[in-house]
Write a structure and sequence with these properties.
- The structure is a homodimer of 323-residue chains.
- In chain A, 43% of the residues lie in helices and 15% in strands.
- Chain A is built from 13 helices and ten strands.
- Chain A has a six-stranded mixed β-sheet with strand order 1-2-10-7-8-9, sandwiched between helices. A four-stranded parallel β-sheet of chain A has the order 5-4-3-6, with helices on both faces.
- At the A-B interface, helix 11 and helix 13 of A face helix 11 and helix 13 of B.
Chain lengths: 323, 323
């Protein structure tokens, strides 16, 4: 049963064709400061420069375009998200002329609420994200677009992996942040299919470690307590059987990093890359620093850090001593 | 006499060949948010991603490589700068194996001092920047590398112009920040030679308006009072006859912008581009907003904003209400 869940390369390639011209091909940038620090050739994949400010738009767009291709467009799209999936769904829906509703917690950051509205999405504030979202779908005939537990979402996110390989054919290591696991599922599937010698490592906050927890439990159980992390983009309370299956099949290792290490890596990453990256984009650097054993031993080895998004609270950068 | 001062296209092309592979070709990125706001296709040239964090490395490297080509390498390189030229000179000198001394004011930002040392440069703190620098040159046989009044520096900075045109062959408008005028001199010379129909506009802080002042005076006189601006990268106290000549010959207009407009543009630019840009890189956006008459009338016209550098004081971003 597990294997039928897995998204294959051809689905990711079809996704790439579908979303081409509607998302940005983001640059893969050599970074001298990080290369020096980590004694490797370090490249960063700048998905912070993606439309809507994160990779999430790839999966959302692939899903709605797939529906249209199949002649199965619903009356609208609904989603629950406090973050990047919210803006991505609003954008994707507007691309196919559908209305979108996003259920957000009352505590959602104003900039993220604003992003949904900028792309024409309707925001419903609610504490019962999933229940409200399902009610909207039932009432209005909308389709719920899950943030990660969906093959079309995983295939869309996997296009980041293909793009990395198009610029850098066989990196030694690719490090990807893990929340619910949609991004790493797609990226690892793409990379292992095309460049099986490349190691793919996941990094997640120790205080929001749904995937590590699922790996230890042997199945995708919700975390015993709600995740709390500075890397808000990774605070999924559970992985899914689908993403767990991808990780088991394709990912070499998932490591956990502390909040302190994420925050330090976040500041240093912004300083070294001159890119506005959100904390979720910095867990990979935090992982490489904390787990030197992850790094390829060979001199001149190539390491890719996937900078997943750029929707950062800049005011927070000044919150403690700048590095 | 004026015309012999002008750097020509062939010198800029030679500079491009000389520095190729030693500097980054920086991306020219479409920006949907700014395009929507300004009702044009707006692209940003991300020189904040350049080595050392600004375009300055192009000119400095071209100068020292020219010396080497001519078999005229001095014992070392000296410069005075509180900012991006400092790190650029240290980096360029190290590329040809020369020692570098940079004279910096005691008030220099620690991060900029640190950048010089990272590239192996020696820092001398002094209030008499020019005098100390000349004394070092006399004592040690070093060559002084002026931040803008040097044909090799201007030719090196001009390579940004060639790169813009390589990605976008005939933009309607290119907006460039102006300090001492080295960048706009080179960029305008390159662009007008290759794409004469492109308008090149300079933007400078009203409180650091050395070029506008020189244009009004008819010659490159020092400003009557010292420049004070948030756009510290543009706070040259004078233009030079050489840069003034380039501006007169090639630049369509130089406009001034207020501190308030620069600060607002700076925050919005970072938010819209997800790039860490220093305030000097935001004067172009401030100018387009304040002077709508600058913008091409045609729908779909193409506007390039040159984001000159990324060495920003991030703590300052949180200094007032985020936009």
């Amino acid at each position: 049963m597990m294997s039928t869940m897995l998204v294959e390369l051809d689905a990711i390639e079809r996704a790439a064709g579908r979303i081409e011209g509607r998302v940005r091909g983001t640059p893969l940038l050599d970074n001298d400061r990080l290369s020096q620090e980590l004694a490797a050739r370090v490249l960063v994949k700048a998905e912070n420069l993606q439309l809507t400010g994160s990779f999430k738009v790839r999966g959302a767009l692939n899903a709605v375009l797939s529906w249209r291709e199949l002649g199965r467009l619903p009356a609208g799209v609904a989603a629950f998200s406090a973050g990047n999936h919210a803006a991505a769904v609003a954008y994707a829906a507007s691309e196919v002329g559908l209305p979108a509703v996003v259920c957000m917690p009352p505590s959602a950051v104003p900039a993220k609420v604003e992003a949904v509205r900028r792309y024409g999405g309707e925001v419903i504030f609610t504490k019962d994200l999933v229940g409200t979202c399902k009610a909207v779908c039932a009432e209005r005939g909308y389709e719920l677009l899950h943030p990660f537990d969906d093959p079309a979402i995983i295939a869309g996110q996997g296009t980041v992996g293909l793009e990395i390989l198009a610029s850098c054919p066989d990196p030694d290591l690719v490090v990807v942040g893990v929340g619910g696991g949609g991004l790493i599922s797609g990226v690892a599937a793409a990379i292992k299919a095309v460049s099986p010698g490349t190691r793919v490592v996941g990094a997640e906050p120790a205080t929001a470690n749904a995937m590590s927890y699922a790996l230890r439990q042997g199945r995708a159980e919700p975390l015993p307590s709600p995740p709390v992390t500075i890397a808000d983009g990774l605070s999924a309370p559970f992985a899914s059987e689908r993403t767990l299956a991808h990780v088991k099949e394709h990912v070499d290792e998932v490591v956990e990093v502390t909040e302190q290490d994420i925050e330090a890596a976040w500041r240093d990453l912004i300083d070294a890359t001159k890119l506005v990256v959100e904390p979720a984009g910095a867990v990979g650097l935090a992982a490489l620093r904390a787990h030197a054993s992850l790094r390829p031993a060979a001199e001149g080895a190539t390491v890719v850090l996937l900078l997943s998004g750029g929707n950062a609270d800049l005011a927070r950068l000044a919150g403690s001593t700048p590095t």
